Amino acid sequence: MTERTDQKQAAWNHYFEHGNPVMALMLWVQKKLLMPQFVKIIQPYLMAGDSVLEAGCGTAMSTINLAKTTKIKAFGLDLSNEALIRATTLARQNDVDFTAIFGNIESMPFPDNKFRLVWNQGLLEHFDHPVAILHEMARVAEIVFVAVPRKTTLRFFVQKVKAMFGLAADDIFYLYTEDQLVDIIKSEPSLAFKSSGSFNVLGIFSWTWVCGVKLKNNLPNQ
């Protein structure tokens, strides 16, 4: 791993191991307000038995809940061992079969087209090369789904406060409009743009998302 990746790993391990009041708030928000929205959007693309990877999963809360409702095969990849410990514990508490994989989203340890769907939420904004991240996600799955907070969301404000007090796990935090996310999807030659949208919860939690599907000539046995 590069020095920058090592720094990211150490920062996120510390974040998930020690936590802080801001982290506790965001986990509560994700569980009560955001998770149902993500599950509702992703569910129509899946059938029981499909393999789903959350790339950069953190606690994998949404994927674990998706597994409960859709009966998918749930996988989570993260650079933080502490995050994977939390995710595994949460899956066990919810009686969900969940496979945790330690790895770097920039070079994932999977063969091409391993999964039906790969997704993440609240991850792409932490990288300064989103097109490369999306390319690697597209390599391992037939469907790619990405969601990021919008500038008007409380998440943006919280990130600024965390950075101010030295509580942020990562100093990189970009913001994307829906059109910008669509452009990123369209920049990946193996994908066709499928859909995009935004949602807002309570007027302060605002997210935008985009979905792309693998072109037929980039799938096996076509």
What would your notes on this structure say?
The structure is a single chain. This protein is an alpha/beta fold. It has one domain: Vaccinia Virus protein VP39 (Rossmann fold), CATH 3.40.50. The chain is built from seven helices and seven strands. Helix 1 crosses helix 4 (81-93) and helix 2 runs parallel beside helix 3. The protein is globular and about 40 Å long. The termini are far apart. The model has no long low-confidence stretch (mean pLDDT 82).
Radius of gyration: 16 Å
The tally of helices reads: 7
What percent of the residues sit in helical stretches (DSSP H or I)?
40-55%
| CATH fold description | Rossmann fold
Our measurement of the CA-to-CA distance between the termini, rounded to an integer number of angstroms, reads 35 Å
SSE topology string: HHEHEHEEHEHHEE
| Oligomer type | single chain
Tally the beta strands: 7
Assigned CATH architecture = 3-Layer(aba) Sandwich
> For this structure, what is the CATH class?
Alpha Beta
**Averaged pLDDT:** 82
> What's the domain count?
1
Largest sheet: 7 strands, mixed
Topology:
Layout (H helix, E strand, L loop, with lengths): L2 H16 L2 H22 L8 E5 L5 H10 L2 E6 L2 H13 L4 E5 L12 E7 L8 H11 E9 L4 H11 L13 H9 L4 E11 L3 E10 L8
Parallel strand pairs: 1-2, 1-4, 2-3, 4-5
Antiparallel strand pairs: 5-7, 6-7
Summarize the structure.
The chain is α/β, with parallel strands linked by helices and 222 residues long.
Features:
single chain; 222 residues; 7-stranded mixed beta sheet
